[in-house]
Amino acid sequence: MSTKKPKSSSLEKLLNQISGRWTMYILWILDNNGSLRFGELGREVAGISTKVLTERLRKLEAMGVVYRDYKATIPPEVTYGLTERGQELSRTLDPLCELASRWYDSP
Amino acid sequence: MSTKKPKSSSLEKLLNQISGRWTMYILWILDNNGSLRFGELGREVAGISTKVLTERLRKLEAMGVVYRDYKATIPPEVTYGLTERGQELSRTLDPLCELASRWYDSP
Q1: Domain total for chain B?
Q2: Of the residues A54, B14, B68, B78, which has the maximum number of CB atoms within 10 A of its CB?
Q3: Which residues on adjacent β-strands are paired with residue B68?
Q4: Residue A2 lies in a domain
Q5: Residue A5 lies in a domain
């Protein structure tokens, strides 16, 4: 790891933010499907409750990793997608994803 | 992130293993200092208790990321270091470390 001393254990902070249950899976779905409406996202992330999905999306939005687009149509249309920062995080996680898959997914 | 569907959310499992408090810092210290004795490691990871350091090292050992070398000298000598797997994890985390530092460490 970089020799620069992690001043404020920023890596620990980032890991804590993204290690919650479902978080990686939501990022993965948005990365592979582009922006999705709340209902679509809920169906893609099989098994997640509306409450938890709402919480995770709010957290990801607060991180600046996911954007929320609201259209005042009738009924209103709300879509979620990865911001540039979210796409950067996704790309950066790719090698870790490969490593985890090699280590933990039975062939 | 890789388009391969994360079969068993292996990435989530790995993130949960490495996101505990101090874990990244211990890996970072061993990566930068090579193998260390328990006491040396405890001093380097300022603020960690002996109990927590013991727990974290056991967990990292169980993951196959850290090795524990015991020499039956008098007094016995116990050193810890990164295994090949640990070094691979460290290298893979480098880009995430840089990203976290850019995002969260004030310049």
Answers
A1: 1
A2: B14
A3: B80
A4: no
A5: no
For position B26, which CATH number holds? 1.10.10.10
Who among B6, B19, B27 is closest to A1 (CB)?
Answer: B27
Name the residue type at position A66: V
Measured in angstroms, the CA of A29 and the nearest CA of chain B are apart by 9
pLDDT at residue A105 is higher than 60: yes
Is the Cβ pair B104, A3 closer than 8 Å? no
Question: In chain B, which residues have their Cβ closer than 8 Å to the Cβ of A32?
Answer: 1, 3
pLDDT tens string A22-65: 898 899 899 999 999 999 999 999 889 999 999 999 999 999 99
Instruction: Give the domain extent around B32.
Output: 18-104
B86 exposure class (CB count in 10 Å sphere: 0-12, 13-18, 19+):
buried
Strands (E), chain A: 36-37, 66-71, 77-82
CB contact under 8 A, A1 and B99: no
The pLDDT tens digits of the residues spanning B42-86 come to 999 988 999 999 999 999 999 999 999 999 999 899 999 999 999
- Which whole-number Å values give the CA distances from A11 to A19, B21, B32, in the listed order? 12, 11, 16
**ω into B75 cis (within 30 of 0):** yes
Residue in A7, A19, A93 closest to B19 by CB = A19
Residue B7 has pLDDT above 70, yes or no: no
Please report whether residue B36 resides in a domain: yes
Site from A12, A31, A33, A94 to mutate, B interface, most B CB atoms within 10 angstroms: A12
Residue A99 domain-assigned? yes
